[in-house]
Design goal:
Elements: E1 11-14, E2 23-29, H1 33-38, E3 41-43, E4 53-60, E5 67-76, E6 87-93, H2 96-107, E7 112-113, H3 118-125, H4 131-142, H5 146-156, H6 159-183, H7 190-213, H8 216-224, E8 226-232, H9 238-246, E9 264-270, E10 273-279, H10 289-303, E11 307-313, H11 320-328, E12 334-339, H12 349-352, E13 361-363, H13 372-384, H14 400-421, H15 426-444, H16 450-457
Parallel strand pairs: 1-7, 8-10, 8-11, 11-12, 12-13
Antiparallel strand pairs: 1-2, 2-6, 3-4, 4-5, 5-6, 9-10
Helix pairs in contact: 4-5, 6-7, 6-15, 7-14, 7-15, 14-15
């Protein structure tokens, strides 16, 4: 892991969400963190208190000596801190005015405003965490289910980092042996021996990369959520199904067709699977300009969906629009919901089976939660074989950047194996092996570009 010896300046930012609350936290990190805080704090001498203690006192405006707020101040001395620098955290009363006033006073002294993610960036640059752990911090903040939180915690604990580090060390060991064999040949068949050594290691590392990649689909769902579009003809009960999955009345439900004019998005936890539910306007031909915009957005949501919940009204025969949607979604991950099953069934089930298998169909009722549990079970089964608990002891790759780098490393190892099979000189095969080593290093940040850091940490919130 790369570390830096350069001493950074002192930064400060509000680490809690804006708005009213019980407390707000202003974080200061850097070589002058204690000096800066001491200039505005009235209480114990912060330079003399023990590290990792919290101390009662008041924040004072140094310009006029007026008291700004009653606070608790945490003092944490380097190197045993989040950034491996001195850190002071001021816990003041929650509220926009008091919090911003204290931050303004701090920025008027020896500190500057932190950039988004700069505290975590310093933790990485100072060697406390690697790049994959830094990314896990944001995954943890954004986690929408217990399982996605657990996966982020596992990555933050370094489970993925340790695996990648071991794979890189295995590659490095064989590269070192190859260099020895090339520089100091003792046997006539050294070329054959070296090629065999490279082949064995390439096969071994590739198998472990493929094992990691096999978790990518589930991991990406846990991290980003499953884009789920609820589609159908107007007034089939799409909004009612959304409300049943959310377990609250979020969308307006009436017996008037076209109540939903725009796309409604909500996140919901379905047995550990985070769903980004999109309740769409009814898809049908219309001359109404506003309604037409809603239909166009519905079709766009359909194209971007990972899962489609197609709702049909079982109390009426199939319409041409229903048939079109059945054909249009035939190649997609789909669940067909026969809604209004509490009414007389008029839909032609034999005709429906021409478009959809029985296993895709779930019956539900808009006036009750009937079918909601079956729908949730089906979603979990489709994406996690009915349970995601079996992933609890495995390392799961969730990050699109990591997935891309692993695929590139796999391709580089394929080139190694292909080169050996075609009799390519060992020193040329070695180049592809080294490339696989470099690509894996980009996951942990052992090799990186400054532009990558700017891009990654700019996605963080200001005080993290």
């Amino acid at each position: 892991m790369q570390t830096v010896s350069t001493e950074f300046d002192t930064i400060a930012a509000i680490s809690t969400p804006p708005g009213e609350g019980g407390i707000s936290i202003i974080r200061i990190s850097g070589v002058d963190a204690l000096k800066t805080a001491s200039q505005i704090y009235r209480g114990k001498d912060l330079n003399k208190v023990n590290s990792h203690t919290i101390n009662y006192g008041h924040i004072i405006d140094p310009e006029n000596g007026n008291e700004v707020d009653e606070v608790m101040v945490s003092v944490m001395r380097a190197p045993h801190t989040y950034t491996k620098e001195d850190i002071v955290e001021i816990n003041c009363h929650g509220g926009i005015v008091a919090t911003n006033r204290i931050l303004q006073i701090i920025l008027g002294l020896d500190a500057r405003l932190a950039k988004p993610g700069e505290f975590t960036e310093r933790a990485f640059l100072n060697g406390r965490i690697d790049l994959s752990q830094a990314e896990a911090v944001m995954d943890l903040i954004r986690a929408k289910t217990d399982q996605s939180m657990k996966v982020a915690l596992d990555q933050l604990d370094g489970n993925l980092s340790h695996l990648i580090t071991n794979l890189r060390q295995n590659i490095l060991d064989v590269l070192a042996q190859v260099e020895v064999n090339i520089d100091y040949p003792e046997y006539d068949d050294v070329e054959t021996m070296t090629a065999r050594l490279l082949k064995e290691k390439a096969i071994e590392v590739k198998a472990k990369i493929q094992q990691l990649l096999s978790t990518a689909k589930q991991g990406k769902v846990l991290r980003d959520g499953l884009a789920t579009a609820i589609i159908g003809h107007p007034n089939v009960g799409k909004s009612s199904i959304l409300n049943h999955l959310l377990h609250e009345d979020k969308a307006i439900v009436t017996d008037v067709a076209g109540t939903t004019r725009d796309v409604i998005e909500e996140y919901v936890n379905v047995q550990g699977v985070p769903l980004k539910l999109v309740d769409t306007a009814g898809i049908h031909e219309t001359e109404d300009k506003v309604e037409k915009i809603g239909v166009d957005r519905s079709r766009k949501a359909l194209l971007q969906a990972d899962l489609v919940i197609l709702v049909l009204d079982s109390s009426v025969p199939l319409r041409d629009e229903d048939r079109e949607l059945l054909r249009e979604t035939n190649h997609m991950q789909r669940i067909v919901v026969l809604n209004k099953s509490d009414l007389e069934v008029k839909i032609n089930l034999n005709e429906l089976q021409e478009y959809v298998d029985d296993k895709e169909i779930i019956k539900s009722s808009a006036v009750s939660p009937l079918g909601t549990k079956d729908l949730e079970d089906r979603i979990a089964a489709m994406f996690f074989a009915g349970s995601i608990e079996n992933t609890s002891n495995n390392i799961m790759v969730t990050n699109a950047r990591h997935i891309g780098l692993l695929k590139q490393a796999e391709t580089a190892l394929d080139a190694v194996l292909e080169g050996i099979e075609t009799g390519m000189p060992v020193d040329l095969v070695q180049i592809d092996m080294t490339r696989a080593w470099d690509l894996l290093g980009e996951i942990t940040g052992d090799s990186y570009q400054d532009e990558l850091l700017d891009q990654l940490f700019s996605q963080f919130c200001l005080g993290k």
